[in-house]
């Protein structure tokens, strides 16, 4: 493709600005259009960002009628399904912000439409672009740990509860489990090659979000701020998954992979009350093994880099569109973690273990 890659942005709230900033670093990309359902909001956004040649629309369907190669979908979770399906049917490639959807049924339909349309559907998990995530995957998949039978992942913020659309059941669908849990799941599952889950037993609560002492929108807080789940997979593998937007604790611990020959402990980078979850890069990685006649641990040397992971995910999508490559983080794969999140919500509501049915 020698012409510029023409991109549209659907949803002009908080994260759309990061997409604009990343696309602007790519000389082969033109941000051709922005849309938001709130009348006038896309126009304001375009003006604020000095996007002189960018059209603004009050509806994503008007944006999709334009000649565009791809779209970034930056709407609240509940709108991911409709906007993605409409974009794929309009022949656009899609970079969809996480989490994929709210329910498994939505995600299944999104993948069916993507296959029928032949366009690309990729998910916005920027931590994948930390080169140390690849290193982690290489270590686990090399067989160095032996048979991996237990994984613990997730994390917790001491205080880090978002507001607005994130805490509305109608707009977000779910809380911490979907918002930041999806990163933990992607990190652990991608490392393992996305094994297939068979059942989930979960508990969720919202003691902090609904308390005005801790949250300014406590009267509007409808989602979970804490959740824990035990997920069983095929092949005798279990995963314990725990996530907290707020808690009276410093950390919910590291991610760990227990294998029959060695164990691997991984901690996230970052510090401060919003850290401790997998929405960024790897901080430390340690291998625990028995060698030299005793218990030994080895600090895995990390790859130093100065990559902006968010810019990397946007660049990869735009280059894939330009070069006709397949989706960097395919919807078909992320469907599997959506099945887990769906199972968590169903299990927490039913107060029992539920099975996970994958298509
Ligand atoms: N990858 C990341 O680091 C990251 C960070 C923050 C948020 N996110 C994700 O991005 C999404 C948006 O988050 P945000 O913080 O920008 O939310 P936000 O509420 O600030 O903005 C969302 C915007 O979408 C608009 N919108 C809703 N439905 C629409 C539709 N059908 N067509 C057009 N516009 C529509 C809303 O009016 C709003 O302006 C969420 O799914 C969130 O999980 C990702």
From TrEMBL:
- What InterPro entries does UniProt report for this protein, alphabetically? Gfo/Idh/MocA-like_OxRdtase_N (IPR000683), Gfo/Idh/MocA_oxidrdct_glycsds (IPR050463), GFO_IDH_MocA-like_dom (IPR055170), NAD(P)-bd_dom_sf (IPR036291)
Occurrences of domain Gfo/Idh/MocA-like oxidoreductase N-terminal (ranges): 5-125
Top-level division of the source organism's lineage: Bacteria
Protein's UniProt keywords contain Oxidoreductase: yes
Provide any one GO MF term from the record.
Answer: nucleotide binding
Name the keywords, alphabetized. Oxidoreductase
Q: What is this protein called?
A: Gfo/Idh/MocA family oxidoreductase
Specify the taxonomic lineage.
Bacteria, Bacillati, Bacillota, Bacilli, Bacillales
